[in-house]
Specification:
- By secondary structure, this protein is of the alpha/beta class.
- The chain folds into 2 domains: 150 residues, Nucleotidyltransferase, domain 5 (2-Layer Sandwich); 188 residues, Nucleotidyltransferase, domain 5 (2-Layer Sandwich), CATH 3.30.420.
- The protein is 37% helix and 19% strand.
- An 8-stranded mixed beta sheet has the order 5-4-3-2-1-6-8-7, sandwiched between helices.
- The two termini are 28 Å apart.
- The structure holds adenosine-5'-diphosphate.
- The site of adenosine-5'-diphosphate has 14 residues, from helix 10 and helix 12.
């Protein structure tokens, strides 16, 4: 098993000392996730989640110094959720007044064609995030509300919006253009945007640093396999392909989403199955993927079902792996040479069976897995390919909150997060 040391270049964040922190907020349609991050050391100082906002009872979880507190509260809206979270910091620690909160970073799903970098939030930026709501109707309104409330409650620190789509704004036109009537496409912003950009950027950069190489010198395929899943092909640090499109529905098979599917399935279901467009939207996004095929979307349960002889679960895994192999092969063709394949996120970091199956039978492409190196869950970056393989297969845990925190510092103070 080889764990490679990071190159010991000076840490650009050390100027902040050990006590500076960034509060990272992820406001979903019915949840608020938060993490207080030390951008120097990279650790989460505290984190929490308020779920089922607006329902009769909301589960709340706050973790600080190894202690997790869970309770049920009544949380009417996002303003109440953030007030509650700030109250939990006061009650359970750490005291935000002493944590030196340097900035608040907001994860925003869709930046459209307007945002290719993180930006300092002002009224104009907030209005633009709202204006992008037709492209992400579930996410952007919630993101905008979260920003609005946080600015009101924490008006004395800068707020930065970090977009899931930003990294992929540099995709070449031939990769982001759908072969659709150009007038319709232009009029309605129909193109591929890509998502999980913060993770793809962080993981490809981290893989290079762990290897002691410059990201500019590497061709990397990142497989972000969480409940949502996406792949990217990154040439010398610049993305040249990614699997998600106008929305996060395109591409890989996911926990509950179809990924790629013939668009004519929509016409078929609307014309012949009595479904509305909203029904199909719900079907494709929430009742499909691994869950649709097997009844479960958690891979731990999927493996348990397979062990019990469940054929639907086996087929779900087979479809999932087959789709991944198609993406790895096509991205190898796009890149011409693959130096690194990096697995990340919940499934990619924890599921050694998935990693082994994706790379199985690919020795002809220079891709292989070493069973011993691959065994088990991975919490630190690790190489899992054999020494003889041309492509380095790695597991690189993603740290999206840290990446967002560092991008905030870049915006607020002009430091380079990729340094
Ligand atoms: P997201 O951020 O998209 O919600 P995560 O990256 O947290 O997702 O990944 C969640 C998924 O990771 C779970 O649904 C589960 O399938 C998978 N997962 C988590 N832990 C394990 C594990 N130990 N073994 C296999 N799969 C796991």
């Amino acid at each position: 098993m080889s764990i490679l040391p990071e190159s010991d270049r000076p840490n650009p964040y050390s100027a902040y000392g050990a006590h500076g922190s960034v509060l990272v907020l992820n406001s979903g349609s019915s949840s608020l996730k938060y993490q207080l991050v030390n951008p120097v050391g990279g650790e989460a100082i505290a984190s929490g989640i308020v779920e089922r906002i607006g329902e009769s009872s909301s589960p709340v979880k706050h973790t600080f110094a190894g202690n997790t507190t869970q309770r049920e509260e009544q949380v009417a809206d996002h303003a109440a959720a953030l007030e509650l979270a700030l109250g939990l910091f006061g009650e359970l620690g750490p005291d935000l007044a002493h944590a030196g909160v340097h900035a608040v970073g907001h994860r925003v799903v869709h930046g459209g064609e307007l945002f290719s970098d993180p930006v300092l939030v002002d009224d104009d930026v907030l209005a633009k995030i709202r204006d992008l709501s037709p492209l992400a109707p579930l996410h952007n309104p919630a993101n905008a509300t979260g920003i609005e409330v946080a600015r009101r409650l924490m008006g004395d620190v800068p707020h930065v919006a970090v977009f899931d789509t930003a990294f992929f704004q540099s995709l070449p036109a031939h990769a982001h253009t759908y072969a659709l009537d150009r007038e319709v496409a232009r009029a309605h912003g129909v193109r591929r945007y890509g998502f999980h950009g913060t993770s793809h950027q962080y993981v490809s950069g981290k893989a290079a640093r762990v290897l002691g190489r410059r990201v500019q010198d590497l061709n990397t395929i990142v497989l972000h396999l969480g409940n949502g899943a996406s792949a990217s092909a990154i040439e010398g640090g610049t993305p040249v392909e990614t699997s998600m499109g106008l929305t996060p529905l395109e591409g890989l098979v996911m926990g509950t989403r179809t990924g790629d599917i013939d668009p004519a399935v929509v016409f078929h279901l609307v014309r012949n199955a009595g479904m509305s467009v909203d029904d199909v939207d719900d079907l494709f996004n929430k009742r499909s993927g691994i869950k649709g095929l097997s009844g479960e979307n958690d891979f731990r349960e999927l493996h348990a079902m397979i062990a019990r002889g469940d054929e639907d679960a086996q087929l779900a895994l087979d479809v999932y792996i087959h789709r991944l192999k198609k993406y790895v092969g096509s991205y190898a063709a796009v890149l011409g040479r693959v130096d690194v394949i990096a697995f990340t996120a919940g499934v990619g970091e924890n599921d050694d069976v998935v990693r082994a199956l994706v790379c199985e039978g690919m020795t002809g492409l220079g891709i292989a897995i070493d069973p011993e190196r691959n065994a088990g869950r991975v919490s630190e970056p690790r190489i899992v390919s054999p020494a003889w393989a041309q492509t380095l297969v790695m597991v690189v845990p993603t740290m999206e909150e840290l990446a967002i925190a560092r991008q905030c510092i870049e915006v607020v103070d002009g430091l380079d997060p990729t340094a």
